[in-house]
Amino acid sequence: MKKFTKIAAFTGIVLCGLSLPAFADDTVSIEMFTVNNVWMMVSTFLVFIMHLGFATLESGLTRSKNTVNILFKNVMIIAIGLLTYALIGFNLMYPGDNWIIGGVLGKFIPGIGTDEAGITSAYSAGYTYWTDFLFQGMFAATAATIVSGAVAERIKLHSFLVFSVIYVGLVYRSLVSWK
Which fold has domain 30-176? Predict the structure, then answer.
C-alpha cells in the first residue's frame, strides 16, 4: 500500500507540473475549437432537458389541480430566463473593460467585443461568444427553475415570474461572474 501511495503521489506531482501555464499552448486548433463548441452545445441541450425533469418532478409532487400552473411556469421560466439573460445578465456578467453600469442595466453596455464569427479572446479562446451565451443562459433559467420547485403551490404565477426576472438578471449573474 505504501508503494501505491508513493506512485500515486509522484504521478500527481508530474501531472500537475505538466499542466502549468508555461507548457500550455495559447492557440486552439480548428478541430479542438469545433469539438469545444459541439460539446458546449450538447451540454446546453442536456441542461435544457433538466427542465423537463424539474417539471415532471414538481407536477408529480403537487396536487393535480396545480399541474397546468406548474408546467406553464416551467415553460415560461425558459423563455423569460433567456430573454432576461440576453437583455441584462450577459452584458453585466461579461462587461469587458467597461465595469460601469450605463443605460438600462447593461443593455447599452458595450461589454466584450467580438469579430464577425462571434469569436472573442476576452474570456476563452476555445469557443464562440454565442455558444457561451446559450450555455450560460440555459443555466440561468435552470437556477430559477430550481427555486420554482421550492415555492410550488406557495406563490402566484405573476409574482414568481417577476422574481425570475430579478433573479436571472441581477442575482445569477452576480454569483457566476466572480473570478
Answer: Ammonium transporter fold (1.10.3430)
The residues spanned by each domain of the chain are 30-176
Q: In whole angstroms, what is the distance from residue 168 CA to residue 154 CA?
A: 20
Assign residue 164 a region (left: φ > 0; alpha: ψ between -120 and 50; beta: otherwise). alpha
User: What's the pLDDT tens digit per position in 49-87?
Assistant: 999 999 999 999 999 998 999 999 999 999 999 998 888
Instruction: Assess contact for 141 and 51: CB atoms under 8 A.
Output: yes
Exposed/middle/buried for 124, CB within 10 Å: 0-12, 13-18, 19+? Answer: middle
Reduced to 3 states (helix: H, G, I; strand: E, B; else coil), residue 145 is: helix
- Contact in structure between 86 and 136 (CB atoms under 8 Å): no
Read off the pTM.
0.69
From residue 92, alpha-carbon distances to 87, 96, 146, 147 in Å are 9, 9, 22, 22
